[in-house]
Amino acid sequence: xxxxxxxxxxxxxxxxxxxxxxxxxxxxxxxxxxxxxxxxxxxxxxxxxxxxxxxxxxxxxxxxxxxxxxxxxxxxxxxxxxxxxxxxxxxxxxxxxxxxxxxxxxxxxxxxxxxxxxxxxxxxxxxxxxxxxxxxxxxxxxxxxxxxxxxxxxxxxxxxxxxxxxxxxxxxxxxxxxxxxxxxxxxxxxxxxxxxxxxxxxxxxxxxxxxxxxxxxxxxxxxxxxxxx
Amino acid sequence: xxxxxxxxxxxxxxxxxxxxxxxxxxxxxxxxxxxxxxxxxxxxxxxxxxxxxxxxxxxxxxxxxxxxxxxxxxxxxxxxxxxxxxxxxxxxxxxxxxxxxxxxxxxxxxxxxxxxxxxxxxxxxxxxxxxxxxxxxxxxxxxxxxxxxxxxxxxxxxxxxxxxxxxxxxxxxxxxxxxxxxxxxxxxxxxxxxxxxxxxxxxxxxxxxxxxxxxxxxxxxxxxxxxxx
DNA sequence: CGCAAAATTGAACCCAATCAATGTTCGTGG
DNA sequence: CCACGAACATTGATTGGGTTCAATTTTGCG
Lengths: 229, 229
Fold this sequence. Notes:
Two copies of one chain form a homodimer. The first copy, chain A, has nine helices and eleven strands. Chains A and B meet through strand 4, strand 5, helix 3 and helix 5 of A and strand 4, strand 5, helix 3 and helix 5 of B. Chain A binds a DNA duplex through helix 8.
């Protein structure tokens, strides 16, 4: 692992207060790897070998059942995933694949459990991390169950605009298929919903979205601090 | 708190390895309280005062937005809830109300965070508990997104039968409205779905359900270890 | 027995998925 | 630089699952 990446990982809340000794123990057996887009990293039902951390790119968590597949979460750097499975040494409940070319740090699962047993600071950091991840799932569950697809899109636009600096002009970094799955709708529905949002001053020109009347959009979207973040 | 309850709580995985000193510190300021059915215990958006533990009865976690309400989870003894909010000292993302008369142990939140900071055994137990709760949410999210309401009912029947001792005869302990919300459907839909399941050998007589052809029901339900318990 | 609450049944409607067809964009090779 | 093809995006039509509203039936309890 290069110096820059080492410091990036060291600065994560998860490792911030871990002693040098244990951190080096974890990193000593860790692998930093690059993966191409669309590669399945883990499969539900398998036992965890590594704790994964998205360092670059984005990763999609999904699950399948009876011929159907659903996206459960999309992760951006820097985020751990399948932490719960690693801690409990139980099978993955979700699969993961790269949405873009990605760089992933992989820490062997037995090492994580070992340091967790010996280093109290790491145990505390894990609690915080798990609590955070838990709350993220709850938020997306609420988003999914309490809003229809048009509302989810409207709120995503508001959030993305804030994220891109309130320029009222959003550049779509990902293709629409991916955006559709992130928002929990079919690509066809994303098109339709975007068209419908023109009623609230959202226009599209190529790969950018323009918000003409943010007040109207807000009024329709009804953003909620207990769902969005 | 009575002796019996003290031992019940002491035996929880969450407290198993906590030192006597810290356990007594937690319990010293804890309250064991009985609540009537239908009482709202906590409201989303408020800051956590207590860590709650369902000791008896059942509790429903739900959330509201824009005039709509959705059930996110139903808890049976013995389960902690809103642990993540307590740990992070952030507002509740869910509300909770009793579904039956219930007995709840309430441990002041600052105490939980205090012992968490000082007792490594408690920190480790918290990690396990959070990981477990996290996995439960993931399971119910998958159940919700990958199955339709008829399939959810069929699987619930299978699980409930196993839970009641494979007698192929299920006694409905809760009223159908509550069951409907637990299964994520309107009461009307529960009726309709039950009627449709007669095709697979499920008949109802008053407050009990009879499974005539469990093979057929299983074939329809497609139980899945990565969704169901 | 009679009432109120719960459960069932029916009808209309809404949201979203699917299938199908058309239009657009973009990269490649001629 | 243009032409072509493939992937992506849009639009239309259809279907199905599920909610809602309304009416009726059943249940349970005083």
